Amino acid sequence: MAGPAALLVSIRHQAGALHALRAAAAPHPPHSPPQPSHTQTFDASRSGPAWHSLGEETEVSEPGGAQELEEERQTPGKSPKEGEESGDLSPRSPYEAWPGLPRRETLREMALCSKMSRLIEATSRLVQVEETLLIPLLQQHPLSFHPKDSIEFRNICSHMALQREGQQFERDLHEAHQCLKTIIEKLICSLAVSPSDSYIPIRSALRQILQNLLAM
């Protein structure tokens, strides 16, 4: 296929790839911790040493226990027994002390996130330039385009949306990055052979997209 028809097919596949990339970059739904059932809670309460018969409102403590606790509360500067017995007074990481807090990203994860963001931005800008600038000019100065690379790009991104993590996801991200790079470079070369000066602004825009895609 040649001319605007082939470009439209390529754009359609690139738009599908963009949709898959955004789905792959979306955060995972939070997993709520499992809640114990009523039966588990009841059994756990019975297994404890302080479990008592129905109708009692307070636990039976050892003789002198309440008095010692009261003396500890009244003595200034004295820490509770529980803290003394544990012996662990070293500061702990907030992510270790409170598992519910969000985990900090590693440098590797931050690099992957940055690469994914550049890939999404470059794909979005490429589709925009092709739709708004390139298609109108092809009516006057036809050029040949082949959607093969765009089809491969869409397939890789669709696979990424299914994986979303792991080594295979990283390999797919690298391949998608290289595939989009190839698409832009081939498009620039195709426009460079045209004698029309109308393609100069488009080539400049494509080079800027490529530069942003490859930015470190």
From TrEMBL:
InterPro entries: DLEU7. It holds the Pfam family DLEU7. Residues 27-36 have a biased composition (Pro residues). It comes from the Eukaryota. Residues 22-101 are annotated as: Disordered. Residues 72-84 have a biased composition (Basic and acidic residues). This is LEU7 protein. It comes from Pluvianellus socialis.
